[in-house]
Batch of 3 targets.
Target 1
Amino acid sequence: MQALEKRALSVSEAAGGREPRNKRKLPLAAMLRHPEMLQALGSGLLMLAGWGASHWSQLLSVTLYVAAYGVGGWMKAKEGAMTLIKERDLDVNLLMIAAALGAASIGYWNEGAMLIFIFALSGALETFASDQSRKSISSLMALRPEKALRVSGGRMEMVPVSELAAEDLILVRPGEIIPADGAVQSGTSAVNQASITGESIPVDKTAGDQVYAGTLNGENALYVEVSGPAEGTLFAKIIALVEEAEEAVPASQRFIERFEGIYAKTVVAATALLIGLSPLLFGWTWNESFYKAMVFLVVASPCALVASIMPAMLSAISSSARRGILFKGSVHVQNLAETKLVAFDKTGTLTQGKPVVTDLIVKDGEEANHLLQMAASAEQLSAHPLAKAVVAEAVRRGLELQPIAEMKSVAGWGVEAVIRGEAWKIGKADFASGTYGEQDWWIKQSGELERAGKTVSLIFREGAPVGLLALRDEVRPVAKAAISHLHKLGIKAAMLTGDNEATAKAIASEAGIDIVLSGLLPQDKASRIQQLREQYGGVVMVGDGVNDAPALAAANVGIGMGAGSGAALDAADVVLMNEDIDRIAGAISLARRGRRIVKQNMVFAIAVISLLVAGNFGVGIPLPLGVVGHEGSTILVILNGLRLLRYGSSPS
């Protein structure tokens, strides 16, 4: 059992559960073992060796410096050359290599080697940052088993997961990872669904319950009927989504990349002019002009500016993915940061999605449980959600359903049935026609219940009303807290629903909703979202991803609800796998923090470049200081972006 608990904790930490504090630090040992980091460190050691050898052998010193150039600069030179050949464009890699070679050409071997070392170090750190942000994918991939135990004709055989097909029966033993989506055929166990929902608390599964590939079975064996092939599992879709998101490039990053090529050409042109015109304009020697030009080439390069955005965006996406919030692209992180209003679908999002009986009122002289028993017996064959709620309430109270002699469903209002020789009817309150004299007791009661946002059904025996039932789709316990957290962020909440105004206002009042839009068809929701965008700007729509698809598409950001909902994965920009709408505020807070970090990085990068360029022409800063200032700023903006990897899901 201890081994099973350790494995469950491992799954929780890697794929969605809250990570222990000491596990959220950047792994220094892994960083030092990274191939690019080893090359950078090797270049640094050769640079130091060359500096030491310069005191007694110039030839050995230069040889070591050349080796430092090769070890640290070869990959960057190759990347720059490929950009030049394939895209006919310049990038910062070529600028840095040119600056280092220029320094060496006038005898500043140590300065050039230092530039190569720090440039290689910052590049290795940026690559490592991207790799760290993609840990969500590698952690998930590690949870996907390669084989499954298939049961067929009384025999068991171990087969590759890729060979599983719909309706295959597999055995999942205690402590094993479930290899495919499916339904439990037999067995009872607790399943850790952290890799899917982001919650580490195991969920009890029994016959008929859905289970997902990549989740961890608990203490008992389960027989699972496979629902489809491996590539169609929810787990596979999640991996594909995270990969797609982390490969996507936001508009701001695309602008920076386009700007980089233009800027690099400008810097090269300015450097050439500086070399050629400085002796004439300022009276500098050729060596002095060339040296200042190399310093300018280093400090004016946009390395820090280029690294200002993607490490932060990738870190935000990765941090969210570990907590069950999947972004389909970094552009949605930026859009979410602009949120001014969040619009919720009512049913299944703010509410439980299943009506329950809240009130049972009977005429004087009638017995409540008997009327509920008869009503549930009449409804027992109906598939209507209200009928199922009445039957569920009778079962909850331990009432035995009676056999019915006749049953007829009347479209638009309810059912009729004959039970023990008596005619019973149950349906909408407006089903009652005519007057009942002293029996009009129910009119006031039903009016009060309807004003409270409840649906009222009347119970008739032999044509006379004897009781009434009130039902309502209850507000989810987390809804009020979710809306409160949005309010703390200065964000308004709206509710879009097809329900009548009275029901909508009652639900909205209980949840703390600011804006109520009722009586809407799916196409109406999309047009109302467009109106809200015109009024408020950034609008997020939260729905189940099926009938809310038009509204999800119309919003700045559409958030789909529900683990297991393929429609939610397809229709939304962001998928909330654990259905915990309280995490929406946390996601918005994370996006806002990401936006702040990107702005900080860009302002800092521009300020450093400006100061170093001004210092080069004003006081004449040495090349080593220019190298440290420029590449140091690049490292700092990368590390600043990586802070989002440790950002939790709290909305505060």
Target 2
Amino acid sequence: MHLQKYSVRGFRSLAKVADIPISSPTILAGPNDGGKTAALGALGFLLGTHTVTEDDRSYLAGEDGGRCADTEVIGDFRLDGWEQEKFGLPADLRIRRWVDGELAPRYEIWGPVPDDEELRDLNGKLVPDLKDLATRFGIRLSKPTKPVLLDALAEYAREHSSGQGWSGMPPALADRLPRLTEFEGHSLDPEAAIRSVLAVRFKTYMAEENVQGRVRELETAARDWLGIQAKPLADHIVERFGDIASVTVEAEVSFSPSLRSASLRLERASGEQVRLDRSGRGSARRVSMAVWEGTSELLVEHAGDEVDPEVGPPVQVIVAYDEPDTHLDYHFQREVMGIIRRQSAAKHVSVVVATHSMNLIDGVDIRDVVLLKLDDARRTVVQRLGSAEHTEFDRHLGAIAAAVGLRNSVLLHERCFLAVEGETEQLAIPLLFMLSEGMSLQAAGIALWACGGNDGALNLASYLHKHKRSVMLMIDADSEANSKIFRQSNLTRHFGQDRDKVSIMLGKMSGVHELEELFDDETWVRTANEAWPRDGDWTPEHFKAHRGQKKFSAGVEYMLKQHGKQHPSGKPAMLWEVVVRLDRREDVPEELRNVFTDLRELAG
């Protein structure tokens, strides 16, 4: 079985969270206490590695308070062909694990519900009860052992079902659930990492047919031995009750395998014993990292192509990392990403990472990033660009975001997005904003990108705006006439009734056509005489002559090339020379300062 996504209800802060994907890898991002570790805990509950306690149950909202009545995690699984044939189930299957007030976990599957209630939960019944049911429904079996009885009754139940709902899961199906192995970044115990890895390998070993055969032999021998031990008790019952002809005691024996411990002993080349708890957090984490790096080969080996017809194909392995970069420097954070990539590339292996690391968040497809955060009621909610709810954020938009320099971490966390026309604005705006506001765009929570004449960048801006992100589009006043993508009709298509709030026509308030024309003649003269001198000084009249023309910047650039001893290498370089020579906030044109004030309000 391959887990594709899971949903949680009533587990810690995850009062109701739907469709957390399982990818290669999935990144769970978000602030502290936002629900990342809880999401991993819920995954562990679904796959049988976490036991729900009273403290795990979500608090109810409202005046009554108290804990929720039940906790459930529902997984959407994909069954392989062997599993479909073995269990008679469809390719797509929903499985839930849940507990009620008694905290006794139960597995159930969604599908046809048997019409007879006694067939709906066979797993908890004893062999005599199963035999009675088989007799009642006319099911004849030559060897009525418990597994055979369960399979026969389950098949009968499927054939006599007229509705859909939750019913008991075949016990053997639990053996096909993915193996979960967990790596906690805050743990300084490398032995825990080794135990977790070896536990997965041990389960694989125990599932091999020859090993299972030996275990069954031991169970049979133990069952026969217990039968002999129980014979005097059974005879005694017959002696005491004259109306009872015979008593048989059938003992069910199960040798459940578990890895008790795995100790790690280290010794330096000099013979000196090493105590990791005295070596610093980074050293202990690096030893743990080495252990986990070594698991990549084990996972690849586990995910081979050989299929045992008795045991079935290898099951999915899910590696869960909880803040794996904790206590690691930048170099080792990059190595973590490499380990995760190698593990994710293995067949039948998926990786889920809860992290704050921008390296990890930026290292995957944006569609595989899940942002978990708390709402006003202190309940975890999910924001995921590229989920089924946001299908319009496809690979194309993700590529556009990457091309314009918007990393995943920026898309998820920045408070405001500023889109400008092209390279000129992309170079100049950060310096002008810093001079005007006394802080960088990044410090203000503003992400800048250039549309570059690309309508795809506008699609990205409209997507962010549609999903309640603060977006401003800053374009020259004359761009509507010069570029079809900035025509009012196209902007309306992207931003609807918010068009005039989102799109700022720069220069319109000052009666000019473009960004370059906002700077006065004295500023241009000062820059030109320093950067592009000529025979005789430049004067304000030289630049004033180009104002009111169709394109002020083009006329000035041509003039500088024709008459200057040196000249700018292009329009972006020309404005750059102007901007870097500004010293005071008042040197920034007033219209730009007003735009920056509006930006600060949006980001706030």
Target 3
Amino acid sequence: MHVQLGLTVILLYVGSGVAQNVCDDGWLPYGSNCYKFFTTKSVSVASAQAECVRSASSLVRIHSQDELNWITTTAKAKFPSSGFWTDLNDNPKNSLSQVGTGNWTWGSFENADISLITWGVSPANDGVANCAGVNILGTLSDLDCAARQGFVCKMDASNGCPLGWLSTDTSCFWISDTTDPSQMVTWSAAKAWCSTPLKSNATGAQLMSISVQDDVDFLTNNLPYQGKTAVTYWLGYTYANGQWSWIVPSASAVSLPWQQSPNNVAGMENCGVLRMNGMFDDRNCSSMANFICYQQQYNTQAPDNQGCGQWIRAGKLCYGFIGGSKVAAWQDAKSYCKQHSANLVKVDSFDKQAWLNMQMLDPANDKFMWTGMNDISTEGQYVWSDSSSVNQSYINWNQEPNDYKGQEDCGLISSSGYYNDMSCQQQVAAICEIDNLASCPSSSWVANNNNCYFFTPYKNKTALMNQLEAASFCNSLSVDGNHVGALLSVESAAEHDFIKNQVTNPQYADNAVGWWTSMSDQQTEGYWTFATGPIFDPSLVDWNGEPSTKPDDDCGVITFAGAYHMRPCSWQLNFICERYAYGVTGGAASVTISMFSILTLVLSTRLVV
């Protein structure tokens, strides 16, 4: 399942030509996000969700006090309103009839930082007021999700750096505009400007400190394009107590090319500047200069999403090769895997045996690694760590097992692909595996390939929605960038066959009206596309005598026969959501899940799973 982001971010050439990211018209930048305030129309949460979806964004989620301050200050100054919908809600998660939970979250699953939540009046928790809005005072109110007010959409538009900043693999830079007289300031003013989020669009930024030589090289290659005259830029470099030092203590001692040895004229040149020619100089801290802000680069590039985070995908399983400082006794290795909802690897097919042998040839993996095989309970009767029996035809023993001195009860695999029994107390690396599809959100979901699918209960009339509401609900089931929820888009022949097999199942035979998919021709009449995925493939859609030229039938449904029909988008129908399987979960371990930002949206007001 691909998610196609219509990011409203453009490249704008600032000053003399360095490209910097800015938000599109109507959107305001703060940090690494773009925000849009809607005050000209008052709508329900469902309608607000749909509006945000159309611009590939989500209802706002607030993650820091600085962000909340910026939102309220901006709203008060530019968008006065009694309140704005946010993504905060306490909608029930497990039942269609359950009242509000009293547990307020962003969307369906993200726990809110309670320290940021100040209620105007304590929430009623009455099963009606399940959605929260924020006002210009920064206080929140719980309201009926069908109530009407303005709203704020939020879009992640970062490249790992705040909006408007230049980036390298390790650093983010803001180079002040040489054409703006207000950005010619003293050293102290420059230092304050960089550390003020409302000015710099960044939290935790500082006046430039040099971390690595690459920073110097990057800046000196860019500075000549910032202005046509000799320009100097303040750095976070000062002279005190007989020595020069950076204001960021962790900055490296990079050798600086000085214009001339710092001469501290009249004992007043105690602040460092970088010239356009890449040379450093000392200047009076009260003089006027441009400046450079700096922030560490935390997230530079998202890996290809295969549903396993940084673990390795093979078929429907995810594998973690845990070595280095994580070598451990067998039982500790087993516990380590459990922390990730995984088990020690189980070799239960010839395909897995061949794949694992190939992985062990990788020099990056340790020479020996624990598997789940053991005979701890009964000597000579080998089982896997999940207690299932071992099929010896998949195990290539290396003249083993021999249970040396009666103390070898755990099985490992070597780089040659052979197995050996070893003392379970031996400190060895390990291989964990997780069934990537066993962790779809609940038994209500159906797993296929690396996707999970949810067919809404069509006999429950309260679960019916129009297509926009259905799309908004499916998006609310997003957890993170690896697990993105969306209304069904059919993207391959295999997925076409799977969906057809599901909807033609006898259990759905009496669903005569069908399920919404994301297919529509709303943008161009007669040109049908799915909302996400690659270029539309008409061979994946089995029309039943359609499409026709009915101008009001702009959305596509799939019926119990596996055929597609046109319907008015306003019809209240069932629908099919899809989402990547959970894959590897978090834990107190060094294997981390790489998160890259795609849209996540608020739970619909009428349907929960």
